[in-house]
């Protein structure tokens, strides 16, 4: 994402983070990616890219100590990892209230609240992009070391037990590198008087501490959260853009990302004898058999079609 706020916002003091470097192996991989130029949106279009994603996703979950069943998405940066993870959160916490945000939108739905400790501007931007609106953000009091005050969080949870709630935590916040008490907050937020909030972690920097035996204690309990956002273009020194979102509840992740509204089109092949479904399937199969192109078959309004974007 252009213009992240650490670069553009007026600041009173500077904060240090590794940004903008790259290591040779990473830039070589980046060049290969561009040269091969695969449409990595679907296995059928780019099997090699999909397999690489699968392997790397598994490695990352292992290295970061995240649940193995979690889904993941490679995105452009931690900003879009927030958007991805919070879209899944939005889906789930509204679905728990009997509201489908994908079908019904946000208007008229139960208002979401987002309880935050230290947070980066990109978290606020994600909340804006998702239509939740920054008025939904509630700053929870912090302790002297910059971590979320758990007693204050309890008070905020108590304030509206019924509200669909996201709690956003930081693993290594931008300014002081504070790590919130993940274990304690997850236990509290996941079952507060029978209500379950979604816990999201911004781990742009700090999630990688899980890979270090020396610093792993800082992320104790992260595996209990519902979603995690990080990127590879800071501490890992891979070229821009490289973000990763992880979501513990893969179904919510999938549900929030499969309602396409643009870049879609359907083709149907007409049969002179009127059996258009059979003709459509026959042509698709014949094309796919050649191996020259791959067409995805789908059903729409009870009829067979070719979808130009595959699941
Ligand atoms: C704590 C934190 N979260 C998120 C971001 C956004 O990361 P990206 O630039 O990859 O979108 C930053 C960027 O500096 C950050 O410091």
Chain-averaged pLDDT: 89
% residues in beta strands: 5-15%
Q: Any low-confidence stretches, pLDDT <50, length ≥5?
A: 1-16
What percent of residues adopt helix (DSSP H or I)? 25-40%
How would you describe what is shown here?
The chain has helices spanning 5-8, 24-36, 47-64, 78-95, 101-104, 121-129, 150-159, 182-190, 250-257, 276-290, and strands spanning 71-75, 113-116, 137-139, 165-170, 198-202, 227-231, 243-247, 266-267, 296-300, 303-307. It is 35% helix and 14% strand. It folds into two domains: 15-257, Aspartate Aminotransferase, domain 2, CATH 3.40.640.10; 266-307, no CATH class. The protein is an alpha/beta fold.
Short description:
With 311 residues, the protein is of the alpha/beta class. The protein folds into 2 domains: 15-257, Aspartate Aminotransferase, domain 2 (3-Layer(aba) Sandwich); 266-307, no CATH class.
Task: Please describe the structure with a list of short key phrases separated by commas or semicolons.
binds pyridoxal-5'-phosphate, 311 residues, 35% helix, Aspartate Aminotransferase, domain 2, 7-stranded mixed β-sheet, globular
Can you lay out the helices and strands and say which pair or pack?
Elements: H1 5-8, H2 24-36, H3 47-64, E1 71-75, H4 78-95, H5 101-104, E2 113-116, H6 121-129, E3 137-139, H7 150-159, E4 165-170, H8 182-190, E5 198-202, E6 227-231, E7 243-247, H9 250-257, E8 266-267, H10 276-290, E9 296-300, E10 303-307
Parallel strand pairs: 2-3, 2-4, 4-5, 5-6
Antiparallel strand pairs: 1-7, 6-7, 8-10, 9-10
Helix pairs in contact: 4-6, 4-9, 7-8
The structure holds pyridoxal-5'-phosphate.
